[in-house]
Amino acid sequence: MTLGQLQARSVSARPLHGTVVDVMDAAGPQVWYDMTVEVALSVMAAARAEHLVVCDEDARYVGLVTRARLTAVQDSSGYTDRLRLGDITDGSGPFIPPLATREEAEDTVPFGRLGLVPVVDEHGSALGILALSR
Asked: Which of 2, 44, 55, 112 has its CA 20 to 30 A from that of 28?
């Protein structure tokens, strides 16, 4: 899998209604789940990204990792240089279908959870990221 980024959208030009596709940001760099934590941090630094979309060998979304999460894992006592993104990504977090409204998206996410939520299509591909702030 090669790294790639979708075109970013302007935050100030977002409509107040419609689907999450209208208000989502680019997914950001997409990487394989077997990448090591150290390499992932290097990719983030090179891409100047704060998160990575983690995909399986079929390019399906399996999770999202942030720089803060990777740094915390790297600083933990159980860290080894063989630790892979798949070892720290559970894929059980919420994701949102592209045709959902923003209101439906906010209802999908557990109450009080703020931050980045992936927008994933019916084939498992990450299309973008929705930043929720309540």
From this structure: 112
**Domain that residue 36 falls in:** 18-132
CATH of the domain at 80: 3.10.580.10
Task: Tell me how far apart the alpha carbons of residues 115 and 129 are, in angstroms, rounded to a whole number.
Answer: 10
Buried/exposed 111-129: b ≥16 CB within 10 Å, e otherwise: eeeeebbbbbeeeebbbbb
Please report whether residue 9 resides in a domain: no
User: Residue 2 falls within a domain, yes or no?
Assistant: no
Segment 22-60, tens digit of pLDDT? 888 888 899 999 999 999 999 999 999 999 999 999 999
pTM of the model: 0.76
